[in-house]
From TrEMBL:
The keyword Kinase applies. The chain crosses the membrane at residues 533-557. Residues 973-990 have a biased composition (Polar residues). It is found in: Cell membrane. It catalyses: L-tyrosyl-[protein] + ATP = O-phospho-L-tyrosyl-[protein] + ADP + H(+). GO terms for biological process: cell surface receptor protein tyrosine kinase signaling pathway; regulation of neuron differentiation. This is Tyrosine-protein kinase receptor. It comes from Oryctes borbonicus.
Length: 999
């Protein structure tokens, strides 16, 4: 048996009885058959139909032609599929016979030659995927949803093949470079395809397509063909890649459509044209004539350019992520065309690296571009003809010979430029190329360039529908995008798997699978039906849960009523007559019970939230001073009993014999300080409340209080201060940050003053922190708080609405901060020096304000005056204050301002600065016994009308001063202990002058 190669079907006119080319395709050969014993000869043709191969007998001969060679001409039947021929020879047992065939050929009409173009109807022998009966019409559900495009298949007009909704083409561009925006705008005009052509460097000619809707899409990519060689014969086809993607609406895809490689200049007898190529040259570098001239002539322009690949990718962080690549065909070379299939665009080959192909020998054709450029040095003469990698722009290579119209150039998409051999095709892995004199060294038995290699990412594709087919497409590259549709009998969606959408398949959503019929969707893990007992159990559970919720609501309501009654009862019973043992047997949530509205950050705090410190881990060293509740000690704290390293701490104590109010205030102060976590607020460490005396443990700040620090740092005529104006501004910024933190958490301090600010150190790198939250013990998380009852009030740091109406808001702290800023700029002077509290109240309500300290910069005093605005809503918040302080810190005039010079040592009692009120001629005299705090006399009953009046300060300041008393404890004390007799006042002031400590 002798079998031929596989042929593509002949033109349709061969089977058309009305055409003059009917039965024009014939098989021709000479047969020699002679013997004394009979022998048989049979010729068959086998069609490769989709479901089966069908063989047809064409000739059967038992003749004896003796010594004569007889010509046989056999008409090929109406072949519509690929086919091959096979010859069978049968002989008898005896050996006396002779049978042979010679000079076998097919008529040119079998390949579409010698037939006019109008009769061929765009038939191309080298395109095997058109004009086949099995190329069915689209599925009816797809045909009803599509419109007809011209496409790039050039189909027979007798068939109504329908294309998908979106078709991406080369926009009529040819050659090495991709299309521009104007070309694609004209090409897609009147279609549904919308793209944006990128013209950036390295991305020029790439089209960006955006998914119009969410859903499944079938993408069919076609690589471009390679260019023909100088013989003008042969076929180089691009590959086809199919992939299904699940896209979101608005998702972008980047597509570089491959362009066909340019043909070489035709060199054929009888072919007359104005060639644009430099055709021939002498291999010895000199002109020769005659036979030698023919022998040593080299044809330089024999190879066509490689076809470009079609790339589809996404971008992530400016990096290309490949999805699918349909490779281009290699360019055809000089000489006779032999179809080994190597020149076609190839399918996936995982053994090939995703780089540009290789080039062998001098004057080699250009290799096809890959996804990346291969690592290594490129010869100087190789670089121009080599197709560029996609990541480098994907431009086609230039032919090695000169041409005015781009003959032999590689196509856009990485096609290699032609030389004597054809250029390599572009692809995920570029096709190799070689020189004609080195082919035997590299097992290249043809002058054709190697086709590129395709790619698809199976992880991105939906299902197992991804496919790559080599040698599928003729012509320019392209992309068909077919959206999935409901229909085709599918439960969910119907996908098209071929360009004509005749082959369809159903698909199911995630967690579902196709049923045996290929259309029904079945859930992967169907839920089991609930048993009857489960239903009854569920109903019973719901009923029980409803009853439980009702009981809980009832209990919570009763608890609410009890707490409300307890609050009312405590208001009635709170006073000096309440027994201390009643307080000590209170529950752990006593703080919440005392003040149920007390929250911080939306969370209610109780004693259980305080960190308890074992007493054996705390060691007291020495007394630091007298606080509002008791002695304040320096101590050392070990976090664990076995630790050898101790932390220095400050310990505030509450004596055992304390009043109910003192113990409640002490506990409330601990709870308040435990909520803060800010670098400019004294850090709370823990409490020791297991027995008396009770302790509050805080961080120890070695720098002391801000007021004494400023007074000690005052410059003298004989000695300059270690501080500068910059240090004072930074101190103010530190305090402002702490106040801003309190304001953001809707907390009111009520006693912002220099005596209540502590320093980490007196040297450089100091940090100022706000301390002493005794006045904050009953400030609720609300818009304002109206103070009632007895409380020691720092009149000189309070705005009018505070000491007149008892209303405290965050704007109260803003006023106090302005006074603190005055203290800082005056280096620790007492505000309103020489004025009694009642005089200060009269002065402030009448519009009087502190004058700027000596050498105080104007912007700093401007901040003070804004803080002292009579209308609370007009005062700035601490965010604004910090911004203005930041501006001052950047102002050279402020930062370079001098400090005031003091000619006397700092006083340990009261300063004697001059205060000039506005619109008054009275002078404030020095009152050495005057204090910073004013407390109502607990023996005097003041009517509600007098306290609540804001129109007359005289109602709050009667002529007899025995209705108001001054504190006889330390100037910064908050004690609510009974006041000392006047005879003990001087003794207590001297003790305060000896030891100063700010809580």
């Amino acid at each position: 048996t002798l079998r031929s190669v596989t042929f593509n079907p002949p033109p349709r006119v061969h089977g058309n009885s009305s055409s003059k080319y009917y039965n024009s395709c014939t098989i021709r050969f000479y047969l020699h058959q002679s013997d004394h014993h009979k022998s048989g000869f049979m010729l068959q043709v086998t069609e490769l139909r989709p479901k089966e191969n069908v063989s047809t007998e064409l000739l059967w001969s038992y003749n004896n032609y003796k010594e004569t060679w007889v010509q046989q001409v056999v008409i090929l039947p109406n072949i519509t599929y690929k086919y091959y021929l096979h010859f069978d020879l049968r002989i008898g047992i005896r050996y006396v016979r002779d049978i042979a065939i010679d000079d076998l050929s097919l008529s040119p009409e079998c390949f579409g030659l010698n037939i006019p173009a109008e009769d061929l109807n765009n038939y191309s022998y080298y395109n095997p995927y058109i004009d086949y009966p099995w190329a069915k019409k689209p599925h009816k559900d797809f045909a009803n949803r599509t419109c007809r495009f011209s496409g790039f298949f050039n189909l027979d007009k007798l068939y109504r093949f329908f294309f998908p909704d979106y078709e991406l083409t080369t926009c009529a561009q040819t050659g090495r470079y991709g299309p521009n925006r104007e070309q694609c705008k004209a090409a897609y005009n009147g279609t549904k395809t919308r793209v944006r052509v990128i013209e950036d460097l390295g991305m020029s000619g790439i089209q960006k397509w955006t998914a119009p809707n969410e859903g499944y899409y079938t993408f069919i990519l076609f690589g471009a063909s390679g260019g023909k060689g100088s013989g003008g014969m042969g076929s180089s086809r691009g590959a086809m890649v199919r992939i299904i993607l699940d896209l979101k609406k608005g998702q972008d895809l980047y597509i570089a459509v491959g362009q066909e490689g340019a043909n070489a200049c035709i060199k054929s007898l009888g072919h007359h044209t104005n060639s644009s190529c430099e055709s021939v040259s002498s291999s010895r570098g000199q002109n020769m004539t005659g036979i030698k001239g023919v022998l040593y002539t080299e044809v330089n322009d024999g190879g066509g350019g490689g076809g470009g690949a079609t790339y589809m990718f996404t971008q992530k962080q400016n990096k290309h992520i490949p999805i699918a690549v349909a490779s281009g065909g290699g360019g055809l070379g000089l000489g006779r065309f032999i179809d080994f299939g190597q020149q076609h665009g190839q399918a996936v080959n995982n053994k090939r690296r995703p780089v540009t192909g290789e080039m062998y020998g001098p004057k080699s054709a250009g290799a096809g571009g890959g996804w990346y450029m291969f690592q290594g040095q490129v010869a100087i003469d190789h670089e121009p003809v080599m197709g560029q990698a996609l990541t480098k722009g994907g431009a086609g290579g230039k032919a090695c010979y000169n041409s005015t119209d781009g003959k032999g150039d590689g196509g856009f998409g990485g096609g290699g430029g032609g030389c004597r051999a054809g250029g390599g095709g572009g692809g995920y892995s570029g096709g190799n190329a070689w020189a004609t004199n080195t082919m035997s060294l590299f097992s290249a038995n043809t002058t054709n360039g190697e086709g590129g290699y395709s790619y698809f990412d199976p992880k991105l594709g939906v299902g197992n529908f991804s496919e790559a087919v080599d040698g599928y497409h003729v012509g320019q590259g392209g992309v068909l995008i077919i959206p999935a549709i409901p229909g085709c009998g599918c439960n969910y969606r119907c996908l098209a798997l071929d360009p004509r959408r005749s082959k369809v398949v159903c698909i199911c959503p995630s967690n579902w699978r196709l049923g045996p019929d290929g259309k029904e969707c079945i859930i992967t893990n169907p839920p089991e039906p609930y048993p009857t007992w489960f239903v009854f159990a569920l109903i019973g559970s719901v009923l029980c849960l409803t009853i439980a919720i009702g009981v809980v609501c009832f209990l919570l309501y009763n608890r609410y009523q009890q707490r409300a009654a307890g609050i009312l009862r405590r208001k009635m019973l709170t006073g000096p007559d309440l027994q201390l043992n009643r307080l000590r047997v209170a529950s752990d949530s006593m703080m919440t019970e005392y003040n149920p509205n007390y929250e911080f950050g939306g969370v209610v705090y109780t004693l259980k939230d305080l960190k308890d410190i074992p007493r054996d881990q705390l060691r007291l060293v020495k007394a630091l001073g007298q606080g509002a509740f008791g002695e304040v000690y320096q101590g050392f704290y070990r976090q664990r009993s076995q630790d050898t390293v101790e932390m220095p701490v400050a310990v505030k104590t509450l004596p055992e014999m304390s009043t109910n109010q003192a113990e409640m205030d002490f506990l409330m102060e601990a709870l308040i300080m435990s909520k803060f976590n800010h670098p400019n607020i004294v850090h709370f460490i823990g409490v020791c409340f297991d027995k008396h005396p009770r302790f509050i443990v805080l961080e120890l700040l070695a720098g002391g209080d801000l007021k004494n620090f400023l007074r000690e740092s005052r410059p003298k005529p004989e000695r300059s201060s270690a501080l500068t104006m910059k240090d004072l501004v930074l101190i103010a910024i530190d305090v402002g940050k702490g106040c801003k933190y309190l304001e953001e958490n809707r907390f009111i301090h009520r006693d912002i003053a220099a005596r209540n600010c502590l320093l980490t150190t007196k040297g450089p790198g100091r940090v100022v922190k706000i301390a002493d939250f005794g006045m904050s013990r009953d400030i609720y998380r609300s818009d304002y708080y109206r103070k009632g009852g007895k409380a020691m009030l720092p009149i000189k740091w309070m705005p009018p609405e505070a000491f007149l109406d008892g209303i405290f808001t965050s704007k109260t702290d803003v006023w106090s901060f302005g006074v603190l800023l005055w203290e800082i700029m005056s280096m620790g002077y007492m505000p309103y020096t020489g004025c009694a509290n009642r005089e200060v109240m009269q002065l402030v309500t009448s519009g009087g304000r502190l004058e700027p300290p000596a050498n105080c910069p104007g912007p700093m005093y401007g901040i003070m005056t804004h803080c002292w605005h009579p209308t609370p809503d007009q005062r700035p918040n601490f965010q604004t204050i910090l911004e203005r302080l930041g501006y001052c810190a950047q102002d050279p005039q402020v930062m370079n301002a001098p400090l005031p010079i003091f000619n006397r040592p700092p006083s340990h009692e009261r300063d004697a600065t001059v205060m000039r009120p506005n619109n008054t001629d009275e002078a404030c005299l020095q009152v050495p016994q005057a204090t910073d705090y004013l407390v109502p006399n607990h023996k005097t009953s003041i009517s509600g009308n007098d306290v609540g009046s804001a129109t007359s300060v005289d109602k709050l300041l009667p002529d007899k001063s025995d209705n108001w008393e001054t504190s006889l404890v330390m100037p910064h004390s908050r004690s609510t202990q009974p006041l000392l007799p006047e005879t003990e006042q001087n003794t207590q002031d001297q003790a305060a002058a000896t030891v100063r400590f700010s809580e």
